[in-house]
Design goal:
single chain; globular; Nod_factor_ABC_transporter; Daunbcin-R_ABC-transpt; membrane; ABC-type transporter activity; ABC transporter permease protein
């Protein structure tokens, strides 16, 4: 019971932190709007004519993936804050296993990322995405699946760093390539063969691809069969959870 209570407490703390920081909620809406409306409209006027579908419809899953990526990995900074303010030491000496601490942090940060992803998903209605109940019931579990692995990356990096500055540098170094090399902004299928492999080793590529398959339906052909795409994401999650759990056992 103490393990479950520890997980619940850490989860609740992260959610309360998000709800109290209104600026984060506002920025989670404004930035995707800029991407979808300004960038989507501008680039869509040329790209859309070549692909045969509306570019904003193509871009929409990519921006959901971007929101999940940036939020999930950035929120690893909470571990650095906890270290600097001494809260992490108090957690580590509590009668709760390191695995439960990691799971609690992962669920808390993951919930924050998912909430912001859902906000962005709802924005699709205003740019003409035909959002339905069926689509929503498929998209939300997908977002959860994509978020788990991304959250773990942020927590793993934060577990081995003690400086906010270093964490910011590493995050920028990891986030931007993962986003630009995920197919969020342009189709991977049109790239040269040698460049495609750079995208294929990026786990976010499969997350965006799966989201695009759900939101665009028959208009989109996934890189792999859909079930294999889901299997790749799930395998990535399992590996990241194992690595993250081990990294937290080494946290001091």
């Amino acid at each position: 019971m103490s393990e479950l209570r520890g997980i619940y407490t850490l989860w609740k703390r992260e959610v309360i932190r998000l709800l109290r920081e209104k600026s984060r909620l506002v920025s989670s809406v404004v930035t995707p709007i800029l991407w979808l409306v300004i960038f989507g409209t501008g680039l869509g006027m040329s790209v859309g004519a070549q692909t045969g579908y509306k570019y904003q419809e193509f871009l929409f899953p990519g921006i959901i993936g971007q929101t999940l990526l940036f939020t999930a990995m950035f929120m690893g900074i909470s571990v650095i804050w906890d270290k600097q303010f001494g809260f992490m030491k108090e957690i580590l000496v509590a009668p709760v296993s390191r695995l439960s601490i990691f799971i609690g942090k992962m669920l808390g940060v993951g919930t924050n990322s998912l909430l912001q992803g859902i906000i962005v998903y709802a924005l699709g209605f205003f740019i003409g995405i035909p959002i339905t109940l069926t689509m929503t019931l498929e998209v939300i579990p997908l977002m959860i699946l994509v978020t788990i692995g991304l959250v773990c990356i942020g927590l793993i990096i934060a577990s081995v760093l003690d400086s906010l500055e270093n964490f910011g540098v590493i995050m920028t170094f990891v986030n931007m390539p993962m986003f630009f090399l995920s197919g969020a902004l342009f189709p991977v299928a049109t790239l040269p063969g040698w460049l495609k492999w750079v995208f294929y080793i990026n786990p976010l590529t499969y997350g965006v691809d799966a989201l695009r398959a759900v939101t665009m339906g028959g208009a989109w052909q996934t890189i792999l069969p859909f079930w294999q795409t889901i299997a790749v994401i799930a395998l990535f999650d399992v590996v990241m959870v194992i690595v993250g759990s081990y990294a937290f056992t080494r946290t001091k």
